[in-house]
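EI: anyone free to look at a 318-residue chain?
SC: sure, send it
EI:
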Amino acid sequence: MTGTERKVFQKYYPPDYDPSKIPRAKGQRNKQFVQRVMTPFNMQCNTCHEYIYKGKKFNMKRETAEGETYLGLKLFRFYFRCPNCLAEITFKTDLENCDYQNEHGATRLFEAVKLYQDQQKKADEQEAEDAKDPMKMLEKRTMQSRQEMDEMGNLEDLQESSRTKECVDTIGFLSSTDPHLAQAQRIKMLEEEDDRMAKELMGITSEGRIERRIKDDEEDDNDVDEKDIPGPSSSSMLKPSIPKLGMEDDANNRKRNQQKERFSGIKLVKKAKPSEPSTSSAAPSLAPSSSSATPGTQSAGSSGLSLLAGYGSDSDSD
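SC: here you go
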């Protein structure tokens, strides 16, 4: 038969054509077909323990499973060989569960969906069997009620334990039990106190500005001194002097007051010059008020401050 002759749609049949006289070829009843198929699930070969993952393509032989149907539909079986040891592995279609069923040569690996379906199917079958027996149904209801009572008791115990723990000071308990935490909190409090004292000494406000407030007694002294100063007052004179960083003015005032308190009870006494000249120079000396002194000298000094001033002038003249 030529190429053009096999493509025609109508062929000539002679009048004496009898199809029953055509000899039929002898073939297999269940013939296998080679088909390119992907593995439908993860599996492991039982011979060499090679892993075969889902979606790997193989040239498989397909045949119809004899005597197995589901609702009048045929089931197919697939044959292929392990890529490592060439052992034969087979699986077939499972139309009832819309899945494939492993037959032999390999072990199907874990799949959550398949496991859930199997468990659900077993539970449905067990429930259908229990529904037929009234004693089993009564026993099942009793067990369920007992389980509910146990769960309610456990829930009440948990609520009671949580109520007792509400009044517990967790921070105090942890600080008392954990020495490292207590030491860290103590160090933190000391650091905060040091920072606060440093800011007070430097005059730093919460906004970050540096301010220094003059005390009330210093303000009164400055007001008195400004009133005693003669002459026209100007805005520049009324302005207080800017204190220095070392606070030298306060130190000088404090030193002057200490000197006044020290020499308040001291009187100046001069030694009488001897008639004969002496090599030693007559130097004035300070003596306490309890020492013996001439009445003339006592009446000469009106107060300790005036004597101190006179002593300074005499020493300068000498």
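EI: The beta strands are 33-38, 43-45, 51-52, 57-70, 73-81, 88-94, 99-104, 106-108, 266-269, 285-288.
SC: 👍
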